[in-house]
Write a structure and sequence with these properties.
By secondary structure, the chain is an all-beta fold. The protein is built from no helices and 51 strands. Helix content is 0%, strand content 50%. The strands form 13 sheets. Strands 4-51-50-49 form a 4-stranded antiparallel β-sheet, with no helix packed on it. The two termini are 31 Å apart.
Length: 543
């Protein structure tokens, strides 16, 4: 279990050791500003025959066992096979799960060998066993189809039907039909898998995400957009809201006592709901979900950190570590698209998401979206210039791109053939600094000519970078798990801190940089960095 308490640095002579991580920093004090949490976004839930609760994470590529009594979690199946968007248990106790991004479906009986039952199904999302042991699964978002899966893994998946409207977390009902939500249609459907017949049993939801039956045959649905747990009468379609929770709900599981457990991506949390009273009890929760790039704004002697938290956009008080939520994924009326990097200039925060190809401009004071720009090729970082134009590091295009004009329609390449452009920061005299993670270097780009000058090389996977008030560069050298300071005039590299909890191993098929390690520097020179391993924010100060 990742530590959940904020721990200060323990001083040992001239060395500062951050408790719980073993970080080393000669001349600096490293403290955990925002505590970490379990999971890296939590999705599918399922109970085994012994009453143990399991939870899946896609971005973390791991399947967890949750200790409900103590509010902790431990990895049951690690990366790479552990990626789990949904989890189901067969009548004989076999556990199966879906690896959404890789398109694989895995199974394991007890502590036995992990078997791959199906592959080549990108967006494989939800699954369920029927009482006779037959297994069914759907593609959602990256596809829209229902399949029967061979439980022996010998035959390819058999397509039953397609274009249902996003059949998400589902379960077989007492009548033998498959019941589940249609994400894109706001409906609950019942499907006869043998006849390939679909019937709508309830509608009027915002974005229904999952549906399960309790022991009494009652159907329960979570609506991710409005954060509601709803009981549905499958005969009449009548709906009864039993619990009002926060949006970004993903899945649910029901234990032997009919207590309902609900996962929330943005909270990195699981709640237990009493089905009669609707009272919710938090089982486990995080301050942050999965922090990537960060930005800092200094005003009145105070630093405010803006965090691209993948499933939410949040701010952090640089003094107290207090976390405030600006917006979260899937909430009704909210514009947000899995933010992975953040920069700030004036009153505008720029969020970018390489996985969705988007760059979003947000009013820093109101939290309202000013512009959402699409169709970038894996944008890893973006900054706003004084004239309002943007510069975007497009890892997929290997280029630094300038964006201007109405709705960002005017786009031109400043320089191409970059080896993994990730971090980006404005430099002096019409230049920018960027990291080339795959090339192991930091470069300065002259914006007028596109000339590239190598500032430092032989680095191991440099990602986030920031410029200090003195004009030096602070870079997260993720492959070496350290922060370094670079003099851009001489290229001299000095270590700030090492043995840091950065560099979460990417899920299969994703770039090794996946969740970028963010670095930001406040007006007084205080350094902040994100930990994708712990889901934490750290503060680094000179002694």
């Amino acid at each position: 279990m990742i530590g959940r308490l904020s721990l200060g640095a323990i001083m040992v002579g001239a060395l500062a050791l951050t408790a719980g991580t073993g970080a080393r920093a000669d001349g600096y004090t490293v403290t955990r500003l925002v505590p970490g949490s379990a999971f890296h976004g939590v999705h599918g839930l399922g109970f085994d025959r012994d009453g143990r609760l399991f939870a899946g994470s896609v971005a973390g590529a791991a399947l967890y066992e949750v200790d409900i009594a103590n509010g902790t979690a431990k990895i049951a199946v690690p990366n790479p096979e552990g990626m789990a968007d949904d989890i189901a248990f067969a009548p004989d106790g076999t556990m199966a799960w879906t690896a959404y991004l890789s398109g694989d479906l895995y199974a394991r009986k007890g502590d036995g060998q992990i078997r791959k039952l199906a592959s080549g199904l990108p967006g494989i999302n939800s699954l369920a066993f029927r009482k006779d042991g037959r297994l069914f699964a759907t593609q959602v978002f990256l596809g829209d189809a229902l399949y029967e899966i061979d439980v022996e893994g010998a035959k390819p998946a058999r397509k039953i039907m397609e274009k249902m409207g996003g059949l998400n977390g589902f379960e077989f009902g007492p009548d033998g039909r498959l019941y589940g939500p249609l994400w894109f249609k706001g409906q609950i459907a019942a499907i006869d898998v043998d006849k390939a017949e679909l019937t709508i049993v309830a509608e009027g939801f915002k974005v229904p995400a999952a549906a399960n039956f309790d022991s009494k045959g009652r159907l329960w649905v979570v609506d991710t957009a409005n954060g509601q747990l709803v009981r549905v009468d499958v005969k009449t379609g009548a709906k009864n809201v039993v619990a009002q929770l926060k949006p970004s709900l993903d899945n649910l599981a029901i234990d032997a006592k009919d207590h309902i457990f609900v996962s929330d991506m943005a909270d990195n949390g699981i709640q237990e709901i009493d089905p009669e009273s609707g009272v919710a009890k938090q089982v486990i929760i995080g301050k942050l979900a999965l922090p990537g790039g960060i930005a800092v704004v200094s005003a009145g002697g105070k630093d405010t950190i803006y965090v691209a938290d993948v499933f939410a956009y949040r701010s952090v008080d640089g003094t107290t570590g207090g976390v405030s939520e600006v917006s979260r994924m899937h909430a009704d009326g909210v514009t947000l698209d899995y933010p992975m990097s953040a920069t700030a200039k004036g009153d505008v925060v720029v969020l970018s998401s390489w996985i969705t190809g988007t760059v979003q401009l947000v009013d820093r004071n109101t939290g309202k979206t000013l512009e959402m720009l699409h169709d970038f090729k894996a944008p890893y970082d973006a900054i706003r210039l004084d004239d309002g134009s943007l510069l975007v590091n497009e890892l997929g295009a290997k280029s630094l791109t300038k964006v201007s004009g109405e709705h960002g329609k005017d786009r031109s390449t400043i320089i191409g053939d970059l080896a993994g452009p990730v971090g980006l920061a404005e430099g002096p005299n019409g230049s920018v600094y960027l990291t080339e993670a795959f090339g192991g270097l930091v470069a300065r780009i002259d914006l007028a000519s596109g000339t590239r000058t190598v500032v430092a090389k032989d680095l191991k996977m440099p990602e986030g970078l920031a410029v200090t008030p003195a004009g030096k560069l602070v870079v997260a050298e993720v492959g070496a798990k350290r922060l370094v300071e670079i003099d851009p005039q001489t290229g001299t590299i000095s270590e700030i801190a090492s043995n840091l909890p950065i560099g979460l191993v990417a899920a299969p098929g994703l770039p090794p940089t996946d969740i970028p390690t963010g670095v930001a520097v406040g007006g007084s020179g205080t350094i902040y960095f994100s930990s994708d391993i712990e889901n934490a924010i750290y503060r680094v100060t000179a002694k």
